[in-house]
Design brief:
Radius of gyration: 20 Å
CATH superfamily of the largest domain: Alpha-helical ferredoxin
Distance between the termini: 63 Å
Bound molecules: iron/sulfur cluster, FE2/S2 (inorganic) cluster
Order of helices and strands: EEHEEEEEEEHHHHHHEE
Helix content: 25-40%
Number of domains: 2
Number of helices: 7
Number of strands: 11
Strand order of the largest sheet: 2-1-7-5-6
C-alpha cells in the first residue's frame, strides 16, 4: 500500500507553517499513523515528494497503546489518537496529519495543552472531604477515571476557547468522578464551581458525543453530574 502523508510542518510558534507530503509504503493493513510517523523519522534523510530534505517530524507519544492521550492530532480533519488510527481506515491514498487547532502550537504536530491541567487545578479536583461510595458510584468513578486529558473533545466543541470561562468535557469528566461522591463543604463548593465552568457554558450540542478515543460515556456522565449540581445530590444520598 502506498500513502501520501500530508503533514503540517511548522518550526515553532513564531514561524509560518505549511503542509509537506511524504511517501510512505507498507505491506501491513494495521499500520497506524503513529507507526508511520516513527518510521518516517527513522529514515536517514527524510525527503518530501518534491525532493526537499526535512527535519524530523515533531509529534508526541508515550504509551502507543491508547492510554496516555499524548499523540492526539487531527487525522483527515478528525481528532484522533495517532496510535489508534490505522492508515488503511482512510480508504484513500492521501491522508492529512495536522496538530489540534484549539491549542497553541509548539512545532509540527505538537501543541501546548497545559490549559487542560490548569483548569483541573483551578477546579481543585481532589478529594478533601468525606466520600460517599456504593457500587453505583464506583462504576461512575471508574468510567470518569478513564479520561486521558487528550483534548479531542475540546477540539470539536463549539463553546470551548482555551482560557475562556467554559472548561469543556476534559474538566467535566474528571469532575463527575468527584461530584458523584464528594460530601460536605468541599462537595458543595465543587458543585458550585462545576455549575459555573461547565453547566453554564455548555450548549448541549453534543458535538463531543462520539469523539472520545477512550469511549467514555460523556453524555451519561454529564446528565448525572448536571442533575447532581442542579438538585444538590450526591448519588445515593442527599447532601445536607
Ligand atoms: S455538548 Fe456541545 S458545548 Fe457541550 S461540551 Fe459537548 S460539544 Fe461542547
Ligand atoms: S473526555 Fe475523552 S476526548 Fe475528552 S479529554 Fe477525556 S479522553 Fe479525551
Ligand atoms: S501514544 Fe499514548 S495514547 Fe497514543
Amino acid at each position: 500500500m502506498k500513502y501520501l502523508l500530508e503533514i503540517w510542518r511548522q518550526k515553532d510558534k513564531d514561524t509560518e507553517g505549511s503542509y509537506r507530503t511524504y511517501l510512505y509504503e507498507t505491506e501491513s493493513v494495521s499500520v497506524t499513523a503513529a507507526a508511520a510517523l516513527s518510521e518516517l523519522n527513522e529514515r536517514k534523510v527524510l525527503t518530501d515528494t518534491e525532493g526537499n530534505a526535512s527535519e524530523k517530524i515533531r509529534w508526541e507519544c508515550s504509551c502507543l497503546q491508547k492510554k496516555c492521550g499524548a499523540c492526539a492530532m487531527l487525522i483527515d480533519g478528525k481528532p484522533r489518537l495517532a496510535c489508534d488510527a490505522r492508515l488503511s481506515e482512510s480508504k484513500k491514498e492521501r491522508i492529512r496529519l495536522e496538530p489540534l487547532r484549539k491549542f497553541p502550537i509548539i512545532a509540527d504536530l505538537t501543541v501546548n495543552r497545559e490549559v487542560i491541567f490548569d483548569e483541573l487545578k483551578q477546579m481543585q479536583l481532589w478529594s478533601a472531604s468525606d466520600i460517599y461510595t456504593d457500587d453505583r458510584n464506583n462504576s461512575i468513578m471508574y468510567e470518569a477515571s478513564r479520561c486521558l486529558e487528550c483534548g479531542c473533545c475540546l477540539e470539536v466543541c463549539p463553546n470551548f476557547v482555551p482560557g475562556g470561562d467554559f472548561y469543556g468535557m476534559s474538566a467535566m469528566v474528571p469532575a463527575s468522578r468527584l461530584i458523584a461522591v464528594m460530601k460536605g463543604k468541599s462537595g458543595k463548593q465543587l458543585r458550585r464551581e462545576y455549575g459555573r465552568v461547565i453547566t453554564d457554558g455548555c450548549g448541549k450540542s453534543l458535538a463531543c458525543r462520539n469523539i472520545c478515543p477512550a469511549g467514555i460515556d460523556i453524555e451519561g456522565l454529564m446528565a448525572r453530574s448536571n442533575a447532581a449540581v442542579l438538585w444538590g445530590w450526591i448519588f445515593g444520598a442527599r447532601d445536607k
